């Protein structure tokens, strides 16, 4: 059996995932039991309704202080430099994604943490992986620094579990589509930007080709997958830091046309940039059989449901009346 999560630390709580994971955890575990941290941008929204601290993941002493102060037993580490930003500054991506995580693992042993959860990514895959239904166990030779750091994170987490018994868990997330907070420099950002620009300007120029197919997931499913994995019975897990989780796959053109069905005046075109090379190195879809068998993973949203919900939420957020 897994030890219970009582006091939870969310590192990187103001990012795309953290801004929605934190409220979900607080609803489930109690507002004062989930401590959110931010690095440079302090959220003025609902994150401030519970404990909120400034934290640089590279500051090991500050991280230790917060773990000790709040009697933290479980950590969701969402601090990361994403794929496109990682190519602009590979050294910073390695520093934050690898050294920052390694320091957290060391603190996990020092404070006998019950659980550390860290997202991995489709970025771990390289061009040798089958493009359809990329298997959970396959060669991992990513062509981006982001991918290199995520493979390293998976290996480190598995090592700390096998060597020291530290309960570290992670899943390979596809691109995440969300309405609350914009993503921060990833290769699948087009799948979020297109919704914003469709409503704001009625036109979007995608930075990937029309036929680019990538695995994607709507944020409610992303939050569900992270919490479901965190709560899974440890004894049921054969994998730990490297679960494929899949939801839906479609081309950039399919997405644009789906939005056009809902907003008929929407227009779009495609002008690939340097991010196309990263996208081409990733598979079109993933086989997530281990996640489904070991902890019951099952997504709830398809393209139709996601597009309708995104547009409804963004029209309200951006000041228009949802139709």
Commentary on this structure:
Helix 1 (18-29) links the parallel strand 1 (8-11) and strand 2. The chain has 11 helices and 12 strands. The longest helix has 21 residues, at 90-110. The protein is of the alpha/beta class and 323 residues long. A 7-stranded parallel beta sheet has the order 3-2-1-4-5-6-10, with helices on both faces. The model has no long low-confidence stretch (mean pLDDT 94). Helices cover 41% and strands 16% of the residues. The chain is globular and about 55 Å long. It has helices at 18-29, 60-69, 83-88, 90-110, 145-164, 190-200, 219-231, 252-262, 275-280, 289-295, 303-317; strands at 8-11, 34-38, 52-54, 74-77, 115-121, 168-173, 175-177, 203-206, 213-218, 243-244, 248-251, 267-270. It has 2 domains: 8-174 and 218-244, Rossmann fold (3-Layer(aba) Sandwich); 177-215 and 248-317, UDP-galactose 4-epimerase, domain 1.
